[in-house]
């Protein structure tokens, strides 16, 4: 498994020069690709472009120059794929020239010295980039790009999944917008991750974006006040995005720690691929659902569970919240509670979905007598975010919720989890 570590580098003349060289190469590739297409009706392949324009490019390592061409043709391929699928709205190919661009190094240009300094080669005759690397693992791929304030180092390195799961229990995970995740464990225990904090940050993001855009539109473009407001908008929105990522990291780490303590060996997550294409609930609800960070949440949950030795699998989520886990009668509930009219089964709707997701992947695997599906399903315990939540296991037990306030109570361990150079996914 590969993880990414990020480090802030500030701004130096050497990094500015490298970014300008990469931007110049991107602009050259863009210009000549479309010139060939427009004048001769011929599209250059990636191999031809690398041979004609990347080979011997001054100021960059040969692999760094090839990586710029990889980025351009990846963007071009993504554009062609979307056009093939009929997605034309607001879609444009990579055509703009760039003054600066990110610089990438592959394994052949990366060396970790004995003194803990990471050496990034820039080709013969050019000074290498030297960075103090706070790890004993040599990265396999390195990228340096501008994050809005300064240059940022992003290193991918291999991490062995050396932990063993404490048990062999299976758990189903139902992803949602209100409750980010609702988990059903084989023994009948249910866990809910409340998403109120994330929804609040999204609302704050939307309000601030709308307010600042309206102020910017009333100023003359390029004026001093226009530039000041544009910088304020970028700064404020970046702060909220960082808070959202901090929230997702902390709640996913806490959830995985709880599952590990509950001796879970296999986690089955509901597959939500393509769900945004089917959403048509009105402007406000569509905005909420299109800003739903389920993909990032699922990615973080997956790699953190795998680091603890758990196996993560996918299962279809179709009709899982509408199917009774006792008699399999399909019934669409109006509120958060599921009440089956066929067998009088009662339970939280998201817990029913998590139970059916597990059953979709492992039907009939649960030991007899270990579940409360027969009559009434237990209310979920809650895992909720707090600004100073620790991400390490604490051994504390989540509190029990009642059905009316499911997911609103939680443990509140203290301590800080954000550290410089912390591996992130």
TrEMBL record:
Keyword Transcription: no
Listed transmembrane segments: none
The protein's name: IS605 family transposase
Keywords: DNA recombination, DNA-binding, Transposition
One Pfam match: OrfB_IS605
Signal peptide: none
Annotated Probable transposase IS891/IS1136/IS1341 domain residues: 156-275
Domain of life, per lineage: Bacteria
UniProt-listed InterPro entries: Cas12f1-like_TNB, Recombinase/Transposase-rel, Transposase
Limits of the Cas12f1-like TNB domain: 294-357
BP GO annotations: DNA recombination; transposition
GO molecular function, one term: DNA binding
Region Disordered: start-end pairs: 360-425
Organism of this sequence: Salinibacter ruber (strain DSM 13855 / M31)
Family, similarity comment: In the C-terminal section; belongs to the transposase 35 family.
């Amino acid at each position: 498994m590969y993880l990414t570590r990020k480090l802030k580098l500030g701004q130096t003349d050497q990094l500015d020069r490298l970014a300008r060289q990469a931007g110049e190469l991107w602009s050259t590739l863009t210009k000549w690709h479309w010139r060939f297409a427009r004048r001769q009706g011929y599209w250059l392949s990636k191999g031809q472009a690398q041979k004609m324009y990347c080979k011997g490019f001054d100021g960059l390592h040969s692999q760094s120059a090839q990586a710029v061409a990889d980025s351009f043709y990846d963007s071009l391929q993504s554009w062609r794929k979307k056009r093939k699928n009929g997605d034309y709205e607001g879609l444009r190919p990579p055509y703009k020239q760039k003054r600066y661009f990110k610089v990438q190094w592959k394994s052949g240009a990366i060396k970790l010295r004995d003194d803990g300094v990471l050496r990034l080669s820039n080709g013969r005759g050019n000074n290498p980039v030297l960075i103090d690397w706070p790890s004993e693992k040599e990265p396999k791929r390195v990228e340096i790009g501008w994050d809005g304030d300064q240059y940022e180092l992003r290193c991918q390195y291999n991490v062995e999944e050396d932990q063993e799961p404490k048990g062999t229990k299976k758990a189903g995970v139902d992803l949602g917008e209100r409750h980010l995740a609702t988990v059903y464990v084989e023994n009948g225990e249910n866990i809910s991750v409340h998403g109120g904090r994330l929804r609040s940050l999204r609302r704050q993001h939307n309000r601030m974006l709308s307010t600042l855009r309206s102020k910017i539109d009333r100023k003359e473009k390029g004026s001093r006040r226009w530039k000041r407001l544009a910088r304020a908008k970028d700064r404020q929105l970046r702060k909220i995005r960082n808070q959202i990522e901090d929230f997702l990291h902390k709640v996913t780490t806490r959830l995985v720690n709880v599952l590990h303590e509950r001796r879970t060996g296999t986690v089955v997550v509901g597959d939500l691929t393509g769900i945004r294409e089917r959403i048509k609930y009105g402007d406000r609800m569509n905005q909420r659902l299109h800003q739903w960070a389920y993909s990032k949440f699922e990615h973080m949950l997956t790699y953190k569970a795998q680091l603890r030795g758990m196996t993560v699998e996918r299962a279809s989520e179709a009709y899982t919240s509408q199917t009774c886990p006792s008699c399999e009668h399909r019934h669409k509930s109006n509120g958060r509670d599921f009440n089956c009219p066929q067998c009088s089964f009662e339970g939280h709707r998201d817990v029913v979905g998590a139970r059916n997701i597990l059953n979709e992947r492992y039907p009939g695997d649960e030991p007899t007598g270990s579940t409360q599906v027969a009559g009434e399903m237990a209310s979920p315990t809650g895992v909720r975010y707090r600004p100073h939540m620790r991400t390490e296991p604490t051994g504390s037990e989540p509190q029990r919720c009642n059905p009316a306030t499911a997911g609103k109570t939680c443990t509140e361990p203290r301590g800080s989890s954000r550290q410089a150079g912390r591996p992130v996914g």
